[in-house]
Amino acid sequence: MLSSVQQLFSLSPPLLYLILFILGLFFGSFFNVIVMRASQEKSSWIKGRSRCDHCDHVIAWYDNIPLLSFLILQGKCRYCQAKIKLVHPVTEFLTGLVFVFAGFAFFKVGFFPEMVGFFPDKAGFFPGENFLLSLVLMLVFISILWLIFLFDLHYQVIPDELVFAIFLLAVIKNLFLYIFSRLSFRHLFLELVISLIITLFFLFLRVVPDKLFKKKGLGWGDIKLAGPLALLLGFPQALIGFFCAFIIGGVWGIILLITGNKKLGQKIAFGPFLVLGAGLALVWGELIWESYWKFLLT
Questions:
Q1: Cα(149)–Cα(285) distance, rounded to whole angstroms?
Q2: How far apart are CA 227 and CA 232, in angstroms?
Q3: What is the pLDDT of residue 48?
Q4: How confident is the model over 74-85, as pLDDT tens digits?
């Protein structure tokens, strides 16, 4: 039964993307609860029912169906007719897209390919006998990155728990590659050195502006995330990911200055750009790396 499901998804990726989008809508609602209740000291995302932000009425399950309920209710609370914050359906919809991207990345590069029986081909990676396990691992990784994006965007804070989750995935991945895939100790040591250098570079970008210009540079959350993320992405994807993050962040900063939404010296959350850079590097990192060197050598 499981094998037939795997074959169906591998032969028809659009079906998998549709299922992932719907699944993403529900997880988007759940992620929204986690992020929003993080600012409420007496509120827990584990316990308690969802309530209207205006009249505090408990929201019924049929009014809490991701995206669909918002459309049916025309964006208003059933009881007080107050407008529902747009952040709820937007987060749900975007999470659906994020899950679709996870599926695309899964078909493109796989996740822990040596562990789950993937075999490389010119067109990418094709699923082996542990199709669902690999897909779940990819979804976990992308979901953690997405939560980092949301937390830093809302509060300019990256929770230590999410950084530790990235670190744990990085340790598991590299240990597995070292033990079962005959990854040399030299290569593993190189990965550790690169992650350490990137962490020190981020620390430099925090300390120097503070000492010379009395202005804070990168946040501590960005610094703590840099090393584990680099270790998980590996070389050269880590370098590509951080390079893309700085480029995207720089362009966005210029746009905010030109439009007057930010003033020179004001802090901008950098976590979302790290997430975007990591996503680009995960799927297209090697292609960007090869294209860059071909450009230099021609």
A1: 20
A2: 9
A3: 60
A4: 777 777 877 878
- Residues 93, 32: contact at Cβ < 8 Å? no
Strand partners, 83: 76
Q: Find out whether the peptide bond into 14 is cis, omega within 30 degrees of 0.
A: no
Q: What is the pLDDT of residues 87-127, one digit of tens each?
A: 888 999 999 999 999 988 887 776 655 444 443 443 444 44
How far, in Å, CA of 244 to CA of 247, rounded?
Answer: 5
Query: Which residues contact residue 104 at a Cβ distance below 8 angstroms, ignoring those fewer than 6 apart?
Result: 17, 283
Phi, psi of 138 (to 5 degrees): -65, -45
Mean pLDDT of 202-213: 75
- The whole-angstrom separation of Cα 237 and Cα 282 is 6
User: Which residues, in sequence order, are CB contacts of 291 under 8 Å at separation 6+?
Assistant: none
Closest by alpha carbon to 217, among 227, 203, 196, 230?
Answer: 203
pTM for the model: 0.85
Question: Maximum Cα–Cα distance for the chain, whole Å?
Answer: 66
Asked if the model's pLDDT at residue 24 lies above 90, the reply is yes
- Residues 70, 219: Cα–Cα separation, whole Å: 36
Q: Which two tokens stand for residue 291?
A: 């294209």
From the CA atom positions of the chain, what is the Rg in Å?
21
Q: Which residues of 126-159 are buried (b: 16+ CB within 10 A; e: fewer)?
A: ebbebbeebbebbbebbbbbbbbbbbbeeeeebb
